[in-house]
Design brief:
alpha+beta; four-stranded antiparallel beta sheet; 4 strands; elongated
């Protein structure tokens, strides 16, 4: 789960987390499909401490990576995260 700058979703709330999962990953792909979602934040009590965690999904969808984008992927999966965030206009917070 990636912390992002707040995204206000009218009538649903504020998203603070981003998640992405590969859905379609064929061998020798001409494109790869991903499922993404932004999630709210909830407070939970763990060992008597208040901890912020991802809550419910506020918006989700699919993204397809072209052959050219896939070819640039290499072996670092942060490429996919940065690619998706840029496509969707979300900004990751520093870790």
């Amino acid at each position: 789960m990636i912390k992002i700058e707040d995204v206000i979703v009218p009538t649903k709330g504020t998203a603070k987390y981003f998640n992405i999962t590969a859905l379609n990953f064929p061998m020798n792909p001409s494109s790869v499909t991903f499922y993404w979602q932004i999630l709210s934040e909830v407070e939970q009590i763990e060992a008597e401490l208040v901890v912020n965690k991802p809550g419910s999904s506020l918006i989700d969808g699919n993204l397809a990576m072209t052959q050219e984008e896939y070819s640039a992927w290499g072996d670092d999966d942060t490429y996919v995260i940065n690619w998706a965030l840029a496509k969707l206009g979300f900004v990751a917070l520093p870790v």
